[in-house]
Amino acid sequence: MEFMSDISNCYNKRFIWVASLCIAFILNLPQFSAAYTLADRLGFQRSIVDYRSRLNSNYKKVKRKQTKYIIVHTSELGRKMTLRVVSKGKRLRNGRKTNGGHTHYVIARNGRTYRIVDKKYEADHAGLSMWNGETNISKISIGIELVGYHYAPITESQYRSVGILIDILQRAYGLGDRAVLTHSQVAYGKPNRWFRKNQRGRKRCARNFIREKAEVGPTWAYDPDVRSGRLLADLQLSKIYYGRREYYAKTDDANIITKINTAWSIAGEDYDSQTTVYKFPGGHIYTGDQISAKIGWGRIPAKTVVLLNQENSISLIKSDDPIKTISDQLTAWSFAGQAYNFKSTIYFLPSGRIKVGSMISDWDDLPAKTRLIVGYRGPYELYKDRSAYEIAGRKYKDRKTIYYLPPKKLLAGDKINDFNGLPKGTLIFLPNT
Ligand SMILES: [Zn+2]
Questions:
Q1: 228 backbone φψ class: left, alpha, beta (φ>0; ψ -120 to 50)
Q2: CA 163–ligand 1 middle distance (angstroms)
Q3: Alpha helices in 318-433 (DSSP H)
Q4: Which of 152, 336, 158, 148 is nearest to 250 (CA)?
Q5: Phi/psi of residue 232, nearest 5 degrees
Q6: How many other CB atoms sit within 10 Å of the CB of residue 56?
Q7: Any idea which of 5-9, 113-117, 223-227 has the lowest mean pLDDT?
């Protein structure tokens, strides 16, 4: 805070406002964001979609005794699956299912906000967690899930909604900006093959959350539990949160294994889970629980793609098939990454419509069963005197040459037997490389 310059401006008309901020600063009272108006807050409140009736009937309502923190998460799933998991519950490693109620709010990619659990009750959203010596942060906090991935950008609409929501909650509970933390900041893990003591880094959740974009002031200057020796630091997270001007996680390709981006730094505790999928550059697929025996943790090749929360992974991902299908668990981002809105990513909607990526405003807007091809050009239309061979050359029968047969069929070149029998209006798409 520009403390001295504010004091020297004391005689202008902002005096009272500045002075009250100074006093709030001195007394460590909460400061409310000036970015959102009462009208913003009221409008937002009215727009919240009430999802409380969808809660798992086994979820037990327990009134929260204290509210000290607001915890921001990324759901690592698309909207539909996020809403299902937080309301109904999720499968644990031991096969058992949880009782749902895993957040208070969900914010979709378009900014629409859902109320999952009434804010006065406890929601189990932070799991094994610690902040400033206190454990089980779920009991003293409110959870907000942003639909998306910790390695992909959060949308502007989400920043606006989460900003207003945080503002509302801060006023309701008298909380300052330092009360706003991300799940990866507060989660901790038991000792494992990388750490001999309890440590940060169990979760990567919302490490891409840019506080300024939600009009939230700076976070703590240090991790109180690491400083006190209660936990070991996670180097990547401490750089993001407490480093100097290197605040935010790079979102480019950050679910891809490199020398510094390890399975641990992408997946956290889920690194060896059956629901974490490793797609090797050669096309082979392994689940987290297979790596140790089949490959070895030190031998995962660079450029391996890591996908989280893939409950039915193997049947869903045919990695070398150029035609991909969007499902509840595999979003356009899972397949195309930041290329989801490129012209060269082409979508075939269940309705029969074809859209190029540049027409798509967000990857989560695409319905399940939408198919896509990544890195393509076209369409080239087949005419009577313009054959597949004339368009695609010798590659016309290639598995990477894609044919769209109206009204809704999509086929690779190697799956077509009769090239003379292709219907009128057939379109060809060619790979860019
Ligand atoms: Zn989380």
A1: alpha
A2: 18
A3: 332-336, 388-392
A4: 152
A5: -80, 150
A6: 16
A7: 5-9
CA distance 220 to 367: 40
Alpha-carbon gap, residue 195 to 354, rounded angstroms: 49
From the list 101, 131, 137, 133, the residue with the least C-alpha distance to 119 is 101
Distance 178 CA to ligand 1 centre (A): 18
d(CA 141, ligand 1 centre) in Å = 13
Separation of 185 CA from ligand 1 center, angstroms?
10
Longest dimension (CA), the chain: 85
Q: Tell me the pLDDT of the chain averaged across its residues.
A: 88
pLDDT at 185 over 60: yes
Q: Determine the distance separating the centroid of ligand 1 and the alpha carbon of 125, expressed in angstroms.
A: 7
Sign of CA dihedral 76, 82, 86, 88: negative
For residues 187-196, average pLDDT = 88
CA of 203 to the centre of ligand 1 (A): 7
Give the per-residue pLDDT at 3.
Answer: 35
Whole-number Cα distances in Å, 206 to 86, 89, 243, 277, 383: 16, 20, 17, 20, 50
Q: Look up tokens 């029968």; give the residue.
A: 397
Residues with CB under 5 A from ligand 1 (ion): 73, 183, 205
Extract the tokens encoding 393.
């050359």
Cα dihedral sign, 241-245-248-252: negative
Whether the predicted pLDDT of 300 surpasses 50: yes
Say how many Å lie between the CA of residue 229 and the centre of ligand 1. 24
- Residue 280 Cα to ligand 1 middle (Å): 26
Å from CA of 309 to ligand 1 middle? 12
